[in-house]
Amino acid sequence: MQAQSTKKEVVKQLQAQINAMQGLGKTADVTAQRGFAPFASAFPDKIFPTGAIHEFISYEPGEAASTSAFITALTGKFIKSGGVCLWICPQRKIFPPALKHFGLVSDRIVFIEVPNVKNALWTIEEALKCDMLTAVIGEIKEMGFTESRRLQLAVERSGVTGFIHRHRPRTENATACTARWKVSPLPSLAPDNLPGVGYSSWDIQLLKIRNGRPDSWKITWSDNEFISLETERPVIALPERHAG
Fold it and tell me: Over the range 116-149, which residues count as b (16 or more CB within 10 Å of their CB) and which as e?
């Protein structure tokens, strides 16, 4: 029995090494991984790939806004206390205090505006090489395979997680990124079925995941958690208010 257990551990370690060599990078803290349900079943070993490049494609303004919110929520799930995220974009359209709603404190993010595409790619690549960072979010329209490969190699060395948001690209060309996502907005879910603006809801499509299984989900974001809408539409209660 002990020999069999040892073999399983060796196989697990070898698989982890293979995953790293294939661009799946380092894995986040096991405790933090609980926050990635219901997506975990699509990932290798059910662990969200960090130290890797995740590519996001959007076309409409609503898709772009939902994508930015989803990326923020993902980043907030694994960024550690004291961790820093760089957000590189042509022009900042994010209202920093609103990021807290998606689990990311605004003082953990540094925004860098780089209008020029060539300079933006260089800035993103240099940021991804810095192992003092936890994550880098880059907004750029076009990215070829060669550029994406350079970014992927950078994170494989540094362990930084990269999120590349391509809004209205000319084509959905092949890239070396570990994963490709598409996020579309769904009608918001109101607490206690009350009228008004409710909790953000998204149609999440994982179109590509290296060594994993592409899938799609309908989810809502409430109380810093991803909640599935697949089985039944949950009833979200208003947060309790304490007297005092």
Answer: eeeebbebbbebbbeeebbbbbbbbeebeeebbe
Number of domains in the chain: 1
H-type alpha helices, the chain: 2-19, 30-33, 61-78, 117-128, 145-158
pLDDT of residue 141: 94
C-alpha 22/C-alpha 12 separation (Å) is 15
Per-residue confidence band for 198, with pLDDT thresholds at 50, 70 and 90: confident
Structural domain including 92 reads 47-226
Task: Tell me if 71 sits within 8 A of 181, measured CB to CB.
Answer: no
Q: Is the pTM of this model over 0.90?
A: no
- Quote helix, strand, coil % in the chain, to nearest 5: 40, 25, 35
Residue 232 lies in a domain: no
